[in-house]
Amino acid sequence: MLDTFSPYTMSDFNSTDFTNPSTFILLGIPGLEEDIYLWISIPFCLMYVISIVGNSVILFIIKTDPSLHEPMYIFLSMLAVTDLSLSLSTMPTILGIYLFKSREISLDACFAQVFFIHSLSLTESSMLLLMAFDRFVAICNPLRYASILTPTRIAKLGLVFVLRGVVLVFPVPFLLKRFQYCRANVLSHSYCLHQEVMKLACSDINVNSIYGLSVKLLTVGLDSLLIFLSYVMIIKTVLSVASPKESLRAMNTCVSHLCAILLFFTPEIGLSVIHRFGNSSSHLLQILLGYVYLLVPPLMNPIVYSVKSKHLRTRIIRDVDGVCH
């Protein structure tokens, strides 16, 4: 399939003439004629518009409605800011390819995008963990909910987890910058990922590989484990102290968060496994999973929370009615 892509062919990938290239080439979806790129850009544009508008609306509603200044909605606003930032960090290169057929990206711009994508991904994982903690306290210790999750403590937790992502990813661009790149300078995704960029280096990448795996295990791996344990405790508490009807009502407050968890962690873990161990996997599968990983959570999270949260849904409907009348 790759050798049918124009203007880059398989021989371009195998070339070793790119000694210290000044740019990388972002491939996009291989095997497609450039004539249909404009058509492909339409769904991408719609996804970005919905993501940006949806997350902005959630932020506006939470900020302007005092009744929503509760821990659950404050954590949701943090998630919305992360999703909004993640959309903006990938939009220039993805739309640049499909709208303007601009595939080149400078090394420095690529390394900067690596930093923003990976630090924001770690932050999103952290926000989902904090939201799991919020549900855990609300269901397992409701009498102390307000005293445990005070505004000051929420702000400190949010700041700590944002700094965690920034600090852990901060060395990555510098680790990539020290490499000599003498292999083909073509990246298969429409944006720069650390695990793919480092494979283009002709230097020893063991340090990057070990560091990247360690960071992933200590953040996404640990967060997913703690989220799992939180829900084990939630289910245990609900089943032991509540009637079936109350149990259903309590678990219903977790549905939107569970959807957000699946939307984020499933492609995140899948893409990491494929990049590290799936050398024989379909190239197209890697690319499609990469799009799902970065585009679907920011798109779907506002929709899921708007549908499942009665307060948000009521406020959105009220605002829409006000605009229409």
UniProtKB/TrEMBL annotation:
Task: State where the protein is found.
Answer: Cell membrane; Membrane
User: Which chain regions cross the lipid bilayer?
Assistant: 36-62, 74-99, 111-133, 154-176, 254-278, 284-305
Primary location: membrane
Q: Name one Pfam family in it.
A: 7tm_4
For this UniProt entry, the molecular function terms from Gene Ontology, in alphabetical order, are: G protein-coupled receptor activity; olfactory receptor activity
Q: Which SUPFAM superfamilies match?
A: Family A G protein-coupled receptor-like
Domain of life the protein comes from: Eukaryota
CDD domains, alphabetically? 7tmA_OR51-like
User: Looking at the UniProt record for this protein, which Gene Ontology cellular component terms does it annotate, in alphabetical order?
Assistant: plasma membrane
The G-protein coupled receptors family 1 profile domain extends over 54-305
Alphabetical list of InterPro entries matching this protein: GPCR_Rhodpsn, GPCR_Rhodpsn_7TM, Olfact_rcpt, OR51/52/56-like
Q: State the similarity comment.
A: Belongs to the G-protein coupled receptor 1 family.
What name has this protein been given in UniProt?
Olfactory receptor
Organism source for this protein? Chelydra serpentina
